[in-house]
Write a structure and sequence with these properties.
This protein is of the alpha/beta class. It contains nine helices and twelve strands. It has one domain: P-loop containing nucleotide triphosphate hydrolases (Rossmann fold, 3-Layer(aba) Sandwich). The structure holds adenosine-5'-diphosphate and magnesium ion (2 copies).
């Protein structure tokens, strides 16, 4: 049976100031439905690039490989089609949108996805009711919905806002790219609980993180280690604890020797 998400031999590069730079060098990764997987790996190994390529960001050129999402060719889909199909990406650096009201922004995104899925749009009242409940569950201050998107938000508030978006968009597959960076322990737990609340046999997630603490709360089904644009090693949750104790060097050396 084909997997929920199946990445095979994925290579991607970027044109950096006229120079082709190969970043992904053959990524193989399968995520079954209902599982949460984590990717760890040293800075600059291509983790964010992988998430951008999956989300359909245009600056990256895919030169080889394939990505099947629920049996569909993900790479052939427009970013909006990917979102409609259930993909969600929480960015490492959420953008600030001055002059754009957070609740309106979120309602537009939610209704675009609902339309594409053949669901009724939410009117302002119905939407606000759901959004307020979701914001409360994330311990967000009530005024966060009234403010401009991410403008003047603290690091932790931006990450909570990403988790709020994720919760409201009801994705079947979420990628969280270092949604934990810069968060204190309480906020980490809230991000993890946001993901855990979505857990179901129809929901999978790929969590990019450096933090054992986040993984303690999330308890991923599988951990993958990325280095130089490839997945070099996969294992159970104990692999994250080993990395936390010993660093990446040992694993990178072993992979090189193999
Ligand atoms: P990670 O998220 O694992 O830290 P990235 O995917 O952000 O790594 O980056 C992988 C490599 O690709 C790095 O060497 C980075 O500098 C380079 N890279 C990523 N995006 C660009 C870009 N827009 N222009 C030039 N180089 C880039
Ligand atoms: Mg990085
Ligand atoms: Mg990154």
């Amino acid at each position: 049976m084909s997997q929920f998400l199946e990445i095979s031999g994925l290579k991607a590069r970027i044109d950096a100031d006229g120079q082709e730079k190969q970043i992904l060098r053959g990524v193989d990764l399968s995520i079954p439905p209902g599982e949460v997987h984590a990717i760890m790996g040293p800075n600059g190994c291509g983790k964010s690039t992988l998430s951008y390529v999956l989300a359909g960001r245009e600056d990256y050129e895919v030169t080889a490989g394939s990505v099947l999402f629920k049996g569909q060719d993900l790479l052939a889909m427009e970013p909006e089609e990917r979102a409609a199909a259930g993909l969600f990406l929480a960015f490492q650096a959420p953008v600030e949108l001055p002059g754009v009201n957070n609740a309106n922004f979120l309602r537009t995104a939610v209704n675009a996805v609902r339309r594409a899925r053949g669901q009724d749009e939410l009117d302002a009242v119905a939407f606000l009711k759901l959004a307020r409940t979701a914001a409360k569950e994330l311990s967000m201050a009530p005024d966060m919905l009234k403010r401009n998107v991410n403008v003047g938000f603290s690091g932790g508030e931006k990450k909570r806002n990403e988790v709020l978006q994720m919760t409201m968009l009801e994705p079947s597959f979420a990628i969280l790219d270092e949604t934990d960076s810069g968060l204190d322990v309480d906020a980490l737990r809230i991000v993890a609980e946001g993901v855990n609340r979505l857990r179901s046999p129809q929901f999978s997630a790929l969590v990019i993180t450096h933090h054992q603490k986040l993984l303690d709360y999330l308890v991923p089904d599988r951990i993958h280690v990325m280095a130089q644009g490839r997945i070099i090693l996969s294992g159970g949750p104990e692999l994250a604890r080993e990395i936390d104790r010993e660093g990446y060097t040992k694993f990178l050396a072993e992979a090189e020797a193999a």
